[in-house]
Write a structure and sequence with these properties.
Layout: E1 4-7, E2 10-16, H1 18-35, E3 42-47, H2 51-60, E4 66-76, E5 83-88, E6 98-106, H3 110-120, E7 126-134, E8 147-151, E9 157-158, E10 174-177
Parallel strand pairs: 3-4, 3-6, 6-7, 7-8
Antiparallel strand pairs: 1-2, 2-10, 4-5, 9-10
Helix pairs in contact: 1-2
Bound molecules: guanosine-5'-monophosphate (5GP).
Guanosine-5'-monophosphate binds near residues 105, 106, 109 and 156.
């Protein structure tokens, strides 16, 4: 376990060691397994950041369940209406299903809110939200989260699936940005 890492031009320091992350994931997986025992849930991992978290928590679930992955794409609309959001990769009919969204991190909550809004349109029976990391001080949206791994300060983090300019996703520990000066 390294105390400090450098990615491109930035320095990061150890914030959440892998053992702590894995212990918390085991706890949440057990809770979810109990809560959704007879609900035949469909887990939906939100790409890219959640791919490692989604795999780890899914393996620790004690119920058999299904999993798929989605990506939220936002682009400028052709009209003056501004940003248009679209879910890429939804190839399962989720109508009437019990959905569990797996997110790596909720910062302002904008991504999660848009994802929920789009999923609601497909009329699932229920939507639950799991996020490994949550930044309560920067969340602007009033979203109910059912399972939170860790509340963290409003500081940029990398590792365990999270990137800085595309790099750093492979670290097993989670690191936070060292602010210069
Ligand atoms: P939002 O502000 O919409 O809640 O977060 C948008 C996205 O920004 C997240 O899904 C994540 O991909 C990225 N993000 C937010 N905070 C961090 C962070 O501290 N580190 C990294 N690597 N990505 C972040």
């Amino acid at each position: 376990m390294m105390k400090r890492i450098k990615i491109l031009d930035k320095e990061f320091e150890l914030s959440l060691p892998a053992a702590k992350v894995q212990k918390r994931i085991r706890e949440i997986a057990e809770e979810i397994s109990n809560d959704l025992k007879d609900k035949d849930p469909l887990f939906i991992g939100i790409l890219n950041g959640s791919f490692i978290f989604a795999a780890d928590i899914f393996k620790k679930m004690s119920i058999d369940a299904r999993i798929t992955f989605l990506k939220l794409e936002s682009y400028q609309g052709t009209e003056s209406s501004g940003r248009v959001e679209q879910l890429i990769g939804l190839n399962v009919d989720i109508k009437g299903m019990n959905i569990v969204i797996l997110e790596d991190i909720v910062d302002t909550g904008t991504t999660l809110q848009a994802t929920i809004n789009l999923l609601v349109g497909y009329e699932p029976a229920s939507i639950r939200v799991v996020t490994l990391l949550f930044k309560p001080d920067s969340c602007k949206n009033d979203i109910h989260m059912d399972y939170i791994g860790f509340n963290i300060p409003d500081n940029f983090v990398v590792g365990y699936g999270l990137d800085y300019k595309g790099f750093g996703r492979g670290y097993e520990d989670i690191y936070s940005l060292v602010n210069e000066g």
